[in-house]
């Protein structure tokens, strides 16, 4: 059997954890620059607010609804996610972290009743030790476990735990007959439309499809989904997470940036963030693409530009990445353009130390990345950085976060105090 643990309304639950007055209120968490809704409390969902709704459309009704908004606090969410995942791993035979708020677990062997008791204890353990609510679904495959977890979320009578084999006879048949095919894990967009063109509109119809025909028409991934819906575990729990194939750091600016040098400074910051993520993953990059673009929604001329850089030596050090990014992009930018987005994409990733430096390659700058990481871990993120970015002065590309909650668990100056 496989269990899927999902933290309920993760971002919203993290906000309410340290601000109990938010419990029971309609709450939305907004994307970068306080643009669109990326998380909702149950009360906000009841108002009909959807994922992706822009805040400017909700603002007029916010006071009448009692709607509360918060800016995304990614440092808080990442820290609480790590706490939850480490805790869950201690109570299972195996774990695959699927996303920031979901993971698959291998429950202990036992009867249905014993596995349900294990899940209820696990749910209580997370609530007691971290303070976040979770839902747990248990089934013979990942795809079925996902359906069971969604059922646990939507039916309060389940107490947040659903075991596939504990449901009444005919329950899953009836449910899958009613659920649209887009409710299946990984089915959306064009794929859903292609399935609907074949007459497959519900989960039950996909389950009953010929897996071989689905493979010929689509791919082995969709064939595995059909097998999973029929209870065959075609997607095993992977204890080892696959190495990332690329790392992207980009941002939309709150206001247009006209000066190429300022856009270059923004890309320099993004390159430093990319280098930090590379070191965290124990990887180096041999190739990067830097880019900047204007907005197609603003009046005036448009300009989308990118540059590709092959690094002489694969690296995760900030100095060569920053230098390469700026040198490649800035000369291609035009004065007077309203740039609204920029970023860096690192590819050709390899484990650090796996790529030997060939003789005759130019000497590389002294490694300082780990030193910067150590200082920032001890004194707080952003304490030490290259060039102007270490001056703590506001930047034109900084996120607009008017309602950012404190970083309660990652910043000494923002710890919750008790009087």
Automatic annotation (TrEMBL):
Keywords, in A-Z order: DNA damage, DNA repair, SOS mutagenesis, SOS response
Job description of the protein: Poorly processive, error-prone DNA polymerase involved in untargeted mutagenesis. Copies undamaged DNA at stalled replication forks, which arise in vivo from mismatched or misaligned primer ends. These misaligned primers can be extended by PolIV. Exhibits no 3'-5' exonuclease (proofreading) activity. May be involved in translesional synthesis, in conjunction with the beta clamp from PolIII.
SUPFAM superfamilies: DNA/RNA polymerases
Membrane-crossing residue ranges in chain numbering: none
Taxonomic superkingdom: Bacteria
Domain UmuC stretches: 2-188
Name of the protein: Protein UmuC
Organism: Kocuria dechangensis
UniProt xrefs under Pfam families: DUF4113, IMS, IMS_C
Protein's gene: umuC
One annotated Gene Ontology cellular component of this protein: cytosol
Protein family per UniProt: Belongs to the DNA polymerase type-Y family.
GO molecular function, one term: damaged DNA binding
InterPro entries: DNA/RNA_pol_sf, DNA_pol_Y-fam_little_finger, DNA_polymerase-Y, DUF4113, Rev_trsase/Diguanyl_cyclase, UmuC
Protein's GO biological process: DNA repair; error-prone translesion synthesis; SOS response
């Amino acid at each position: 059997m496989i269990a899927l643990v999902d933290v309920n309304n993760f971002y919203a639950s993290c906000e309410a954890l340290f601000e109990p007055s938010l419990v029971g209120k309609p709450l939305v968490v907004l994307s970068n620059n306080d643009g669109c809704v990326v998380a909702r409390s149950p009360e906000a969902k009841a108002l009909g607010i959807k994922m992706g709704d822009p805040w400017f459309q909700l603002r007029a009704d916010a006071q009448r609804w009692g709607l509360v908004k918060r800016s995304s606090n990614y440092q808080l969410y990442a820290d609480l996610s790590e706490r939850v995942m480490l805790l869950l791993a201690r109570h299972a035979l195996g774990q695959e972290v699927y996303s920031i708020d979901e993971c698959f677990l291998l429950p202990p062997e036992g009867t249905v009743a014993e596995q349900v008791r294990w899940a209820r204890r696990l749910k209580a353990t997370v609530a007691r030790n971290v303070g976040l609510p979770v839902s747990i679904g248990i089934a013979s495959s990942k795809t079925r476990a996902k359906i069971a977890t969604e059922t646990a979320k939507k039916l309060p009578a389940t107490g947040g735990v659903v075991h596939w084999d504990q449901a009444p006879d005919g329950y899953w048949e009836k449910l899958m007959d009613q659920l649209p095919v887009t409710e299946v894990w990984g089915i959306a967009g064009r794929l859903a439309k292609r399935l609907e063109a074949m007459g497959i509109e519900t989960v039950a119809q996909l389950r009953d499809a010929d897996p071989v025909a689905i493979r010929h028409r689509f791919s082995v991934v969709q064939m595995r989904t059909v097998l999973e819906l029929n209870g065959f575990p075609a997607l095993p729990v992977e204890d080892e997470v696959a190495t990332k194939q690329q790392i992207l750091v980009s941002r939309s600016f709150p206001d247009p940036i006209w000066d190429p040098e300022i856009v270059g400074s923004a890309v320099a910051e993004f390159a430093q963030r990319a280098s930090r993520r590379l070191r965290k993953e124990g990887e180096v990059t041999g190739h990067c693409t830097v880019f900047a673009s204007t907005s197609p929604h603003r009046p005036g001329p448009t300009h989308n530009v990118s540059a590709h850089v092959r690094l002489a030596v694969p690296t995760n050090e900030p100095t060569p990445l920053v230098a390469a990014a700026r040198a490649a992009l800035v000369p291609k930018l035009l004065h007077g353009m309203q740039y609204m987005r920029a970023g860096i994409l690192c590819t050709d990733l390899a484990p650090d130390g796996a790529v030997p430096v060939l003789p005759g390659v130019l000497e590389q700058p002294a490694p300082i990345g780990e030193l910067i990481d150590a200082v920032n871990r001890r004194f707080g993120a952003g304490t030490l950085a290259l060039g102007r970015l270490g001056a703590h002065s506001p930047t034109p590309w900084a996120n607009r976060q008017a309602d950012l909650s404190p970083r309660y668990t990652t910043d000494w100056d923002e710890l919750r105090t008790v009087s």
